[in-house]
Write a structure and sequence with these properties.
Elements lengths: L6 H15 L47 E11 L5 E11 L5 E8 L5 E9 L5 E10 L2 E12 L5 E9 L3 E14 L2 E11 L4 E12 L5 E10 L4 E12 L5 E10 L4 E15 L8 E11 L2 E12 L5 E9 L2 E12 L5 E10 L2 E15 L2 E11 L4 E15 L13 E4 L6 E7 L4 E9 L4 E9 L2 E7 L6 E8 L4 E8 L1
Antiparallel strand pairs: 1-2, 1-22, 2-3, 3-4, 4-5, 5-6, 6-7, 7-8, 8-9, 9-10, 10-11, 11-12, 12-13, 13-14, 14-15, 15-16, 16-17, 17-18, 18-19, 19-20, 20-21, 21-22, 23-24, 24-27, 25-26, 25-28, 28-29
Length: 493
C-alpha cells in the first residue's frame, strides 16, 4: 500500500508538481532522498518548506519504472496555441549504480545549443548533499545556484541552504532543524531560518513532543519565536488519544489563550478509522473520520471525510459538511495510480446541484514500452470549457538499468516495512490475499541475498527481522507468494 501525508498537503504538492510539469518538469526517474522526513524511529514527521529534493521537484519524476530503469535522454515539448507540439529542450542524464542522478545536461531542442548543467552529490548513505546549477555562457560554465544539505546522526535533515553565485557563493536563504532526542525519539524540533542580511540563523518556531510510557506520541505543542521579546510563545497543540499499538483514535486541537494562560479547545478529529496505520498520524492512510468544532462549551459536528481505496493505492476522498442537522456533500479529491503504481490523475470536485463538478485537476498520459515509461503528456483541467488541455509532453529513451536489481525496487504494494530507515530491526506487516507458503528475501543493490526465510502465514501477519549485522545502504525486500511477487525498498543506516 502507498503511504500518504495528509491529503491537504498532497493536494498542494500535486498542484505544484503539475504546474512545474507544464513548465520544465524533468522526468529522470531518479531517487532523491525525501527531505524533511524524520527518521521513522521517532514516530514523527518533520515538515520543511518545499525545495528541489522533494517529490515532484524539477529533477524528480513522479513516475517509476517497474524494472529499476532510468532514461538517459529526455525530449521536452510544450503545447502551442496553434494546437501543435513545439520542441522545447532536451535533457541528458547520468546515474550511479544505485540510480541516483549525477548530472543533467540541458540543450535547446531547436538549435542544439548547450543551456544548463546540474550536478548532484551524495553522502555514503545515498542522501543528497549538494546540487549545483550552472549555465553555459560564451563557451564556459558559469555557476548559478546551489542547494546544500546536512543530516544528523539519526539521519534527519538538519540544514538546507540555498546559495546564489555572485563571484562567490552567497547564502541567500534556508532552514535549519535542531533536534533534541530522548530514548531515540524527537522531543523537540527547533526550527530556524537563514537571515541573509545578518548572515546568521534566527529562530522561527519549534515543536515540542510528549510521549506516554509506551513511547507513543500523545502531544505536540507548536511555539513561535517572539523576536521583540526574545521568548517562545505557545500558539497551539495537538493531543492524541492512542489505542493498541499506538494507533491514534482521536485528536484534539487546542489554541493557547494568552490572556487567561490556558489551552482552549478548537476542533477535534474523532470516529477515526484507518485504511492503513503507518505509525504516524500525518503519514497514515485514512478510511474515514469526523471533525467537530468547539462552540460555546460543546462539540458540534462540522465535517466528515470518507476515503475509498483500490488495489493500486488510488483514493477518492469525499468531504461532507454538517448543515441543519444533515450531512451534505461538499468536496471530493481524487488521486489515481495505474497498474504500474504510477500517479496519473488528480481532481478536485465540488458538489453543485446534486452533481460532482470538476473544478481543477491534472492528469498524466503515460505510454509504456514493457515496464518503461517512454512518453508522458501532462494535461490540466479547463473548468470553463470542461475539458482536458495539453500542457507539456516528454519522451524518454536510452534507459539505464541499475546493477543488481531484477524485480521492481520501487514498488511497495502490500508490504509495509517499519521502521524505515532502520538501524537493524524491521517489521514486515503482510497483508496478503490468503494464507499459505511465503518466502521473504532481502537483497542488496549488488543482487546479493542477505536474508531469506520461508514460512506458513495467515492472511495478515507481522514478521520481525534482525538486520543489525548487515552493512548500511539500500536493500530490496521481496515477498514471494504462490501467485505473485511483491517488492519493497528498505534503507539501513
Amino acid at each position: 500500500m502507498k503511504t500518504f501525508t495528509p491529503f491537504t498537503k498532497i493536494f498542494c504538492i500535486m498542484i505544484l508538481g503539475f504546474a512545474m510539469s507544464l513548465h520544465v518538469m524533468s522526468q529522470t526517474n531518479v531517487f532523491l532522498p525525501s527531505s524533511g522526513k524524520v527518521n521513522p524511529r521517532t514516530n514523527l514527521q518533520a515538515e520543511l518548506p518545499y525545495h528541489p529534493s522533494q517529490v515532484n521537484g524539477y529533477d524528480q519524476p513522479f513516475y517509476k519504472s517497474t524494472q529499476g530503469s532510468f532514461p538517459r535522454e529526455t525530449h521536452h515539448y510544450y503545447w502551442d496555441v496553434t494546437t501543435i507540439w513545439m520542441a522545447d529542450f532536451n535533457r541528458y542524464c547520468t546515474y550511479d549504480n544505485y540510480g541516483n542522478l549525477l548530472t543533467t545536461l540541458q540543450t535547446d531542442a531547436n538549435t542544439g545549443d548547450t543551456l544548463e548543467l546540474t550536478t548532484y552529490t551524495y553522502d555514503s548513505e545515498q542522501r543528497i548533499t549538494k546540487i549545483i546549477y550552472q549555465i553555459w555562457n560564451n563557451g564556459n560554465w558559469e555557476n548559478s545556484d546551489q542547494y546544500y544539505y546536512e543530516y544528523d546522526a539519526q539521519g534527519n535533515e538538519t540544514i538546507y541552504l540555498y546559495y546564489t553565485w555572485q563571484g562567490n557563493w552567497i547564502a541567500s536563504g534556508g532552514f535549519k532543524h535542531i533536534y533534541t532526542y530522548e530514548n531515540n525519539k524527537i522531543i523537540e524540533d527547533l526550527r530556524q531560518q537563514w537571515d541573509q542580511i545578518q548572515t546568521t540563523w534566527v529562530n522561527m518556531n519549534k515543536l515540542i513532543y510528549t510521549y506516554d510510557i509506551n513511547g507513543y506520541l500523545t502531544e505536540c505543542v507548536y511555539q513561535y519565536w517572539d523576536n521583540n521579546m526574545g521568548i517562545w510563545n505557545s500558539l497551539n497543540k495537538d493531543n492524541y488519544i492512542v489505542g493498541a499499538s499506538g494507533i491514534v483514535n482521536e485528536m484534539i486541537h487546542q489554541t493557547y489563550d494568552v490572556v487567561n494562560s490556558t489551552w482552549v479547545n478548537n476542533y477535534k478529529h474523532t470516529n477515526i478509522l484507518w485504511h492503513q496505520w503507518n505509525g504516524e498520524y500525518y503519514a497514515s492512510d485514512l478510511q474515514n473520520k469526523t471533525i467537530l468544532i468547539w462552540n460555546n462549551g460543546i462539540w458540534e459536528n462540522y465535517e466528515r471525510i470518507e476515503c475509498t481505496w483500490d488495489a493500486n493505492g488510488s483514493c477518492a476522498e469525499t468531504h461532507q459538511q454538517y448543515f441543519n442537522g444533515n450531512w451534505t456533500n461538499s468536496e471530493r479529491q481524487t488521486y489515481t495510480f495505474d497498474d504500474h503504481g504510477n500517479f496519473i490523475l488528480w481532481t478536485v470536485e465540488f458538489w453543485m446541484i446534486n452533481n460532482w463538478v470538476i473544478d481543477m485537476g491534472g492528469q498524466y498520459l503515460l505510454t509504456y514500452n514493457g515496464n518503461d515509461v517512454i512518453q508522458m503528456i501532462s494535461q490540466g483541467w479547463d473548468h470553463i470549457n470542461e475539458e482536458w488541455v495539453n500542457g507539456s509532453k516528454e519522451e524518454y529513451s536510452d534507459f539505464f538499468h541499475t546493477q543488481g536489481i531484477g524485480d521492481n525496487p520501487f514498488a511497495q504494494n502490500s508490504i509495509h516495512i517499519y521502521p524505515n530507515p532502520t538501524s537493524g530491526i524491521i517489521y514486515l506487516e503482510l497483508d496478503t490475499p490468503e494464507a499459505g507458503s511465503q518466502t521473504i528475501e532481502i537483497v542488496n543493490t549488488n543482487g546479493q541475498v542477505v536474508y531469506t526465510d520461508q514460512f506458513q502465514t495467515s492472511a495478515e501477519e507481522v514478521i520481525q527481522i534482525d538486520l543489525t549485522s548487515c552493512a548500511k545502504g539500500f536493500y530490496f525486500v521481496k515477498l514471494q507468494l504462490e501467485r505473485e511477487t511483491r517488492v519493497g525498498k528498505l534503507i539501513l543506516q
